[in-house]
Amino acid sequence: MRWPRRLMSLLFLLVLLAGPPLVLLTLIGPPISGWPSTAQARAWVQEPLTEQTLTAALAIGAWLVWLMLAYTVAVRILIRLRETSAWLRRLPLPTPLQATASGMAGAAVFGVTTTNVSTTPPHPVSSGPVALEVQASPDEPSEASHKDGIAVSGGWLPHDVAAQVAAAAALVWLRRRRDYQPRNASRDNTDLASLPATVAAVQAALADNPRPPAAPAAPAASNGITALVDVLPAGGVGLTGAGALPVGRGLLVSALFAGHRHPTISLITTKAALATLLGPAAEVLGRRLPLTIVDNLDDAAQLIHTAHHHADPRTITEDWTSRTARHRQIVLLNGDDGDEPQVKNLAEASIATATTVVALGDWPAGPTWRADSAGHLHNPLHFGRTGPRLCVLDQTAAADLLALIADPDLTPAEPTAPRAATLPQTPDLRLPPQASRHEPTLQPHAARQRLHLHVLGDPQLLLDGQPLAVRRSAALHILVYLAAHPTGADTAQLTDAIWPGLPRRTLTGRLYTALSDLRGTIRDAGGLPAIDHVDDRYRLNPAHVNVDLWHLNAAIHHAATTHINTHTAWQAILDAYPADLAATRTWPWLDPIREATRRQIIDICVRLATAEPDPHHAFHLLQAGIRIDPYNADLHQRASRTLTTLGDHEAATELHNRYQHTLTRVGLDDDTASHRPSSTSIR
Length: 683
Fold this sequence. Notes:
48% of the residues lie in helices and 10% in strands. The protein is of the alpha/beta class. One of its GO terms (molecular function) is DNA binding.
């Protein structure tokens, strides 16, 4: 125990402060009893060294030593008080809502009775009227969000890098939509596999954070790259410390994502450095990424000289301050990749071409800085000053993110193919034997089902035809997820879908709170058990909840298995598809199910158009498919051929030009490079 030592120290300090004055006053008296008279001053000048004067001098010296000690103690006490005051100011105080919740929890602990015991957390009681629309208020801030960036399992990304990741993820799904061939029996839908977990975590964090752009348009050049280039010295820098490799991976990811959308940013790395950063995934990813791999530093120096001489002289100058010019080259290597002449050659080339050189380890041609685990760089010449926070990633997170921009046509990094996405099974719904576009009643139980959940388009929960307010965004998320998974989901599946990338152990309470609030809201409004909970699985009760997605899937199955008036049945399905699944939401888990449903609908359009003898009607059906998926190339080719058959060449050209404009607007116009190897290896 440390308190006896602290008590002894306090007692010793008190004795040290109070003891000397008591001894001096008792044995010698006050150091000065009054001002000396003229005669005493004259006598001291004639004979300064007397017993009395020496005693007085020693007493004054002792008092001065004591005053210095007392001053030191007082200053130390003031510093400690100031630190304590600053800590108290930073101490987070409970908000009124938290204070109320704490009081309720205390009342529940000390006032619990033996009746009406519930195993689920109590739900808040709504005091307001039923809203006129679904209103999902945000839950508590996610651990994944930060004012300067986003934390994921295995690292941290600045907002600009995260926005680049989200834009690349959106392009992956747009590319899959563009390349899908309707009614192609050879396709197994393996391209509907979900994106890596780290990508989903970034998407989910940005979905809850309004700062990054929601559209998949190309963000501006990476601010993370700009910040790094601006703080590094000419001739290169070495990175050591606990954060050297994580910062190196973050630099690799930041540069490649920035260069993916801005070709003026290029990355050169050595084979050894890439293996150091990515481990076993380096060999496969190195062949698929848009970077240049060299064996030695002389090759790197030659490359940057060549790129500099072929660059536009208006954007590249010899002055190092021009590093903010449009073209940026970054060389990433190990500190021991070359000998002294190679290091000197590369350093001179980097200075001449304003190239950024980063060595993982000591750099003989320049300074070596320390990188901490949080991503901050520390220049030893500026003690106590830290640079901007940079992207930091472990091997798994870096490989997950780099898979987004790797060449999709080459062998995947994983030995097994991704599992194909399939539509969830739909509850057994009894549909009429024949549907009609004039009978949009795919709801046979509407007479006794008071709850209607619409998830095609903007999610909305209706009670007796009137919108019912869902107060928590997580609760609305749960409703849509269970609608898309009619067989139910357990706690782990729900937490992974709603809060991907965060540890489950910290999310169980939030999930139970959202579920309790949702079930309580529905029960208070209509007295219906809408969500069943059996064996740790939650599912919507089909006896009380009517879901439009379920009836759409049931109608598709019905039309595919019946031979009675098939054209009318298919047309009724098209009429029953108002919009994509949860079209206004950007939750990552939606993409595979949303795309699988969309493909079924455009397959119907192509099937009807192919069987339609009238080319005018066939074109209108293909137009319906294009409205559902304006990015699909096959639909536009079929529509263009149909217009050509009708003799309307001008309309066919206009359709083609409009389609190219659509691809350009979302960044798919120059995407032909994604179908060939993009990395360069210099041997």
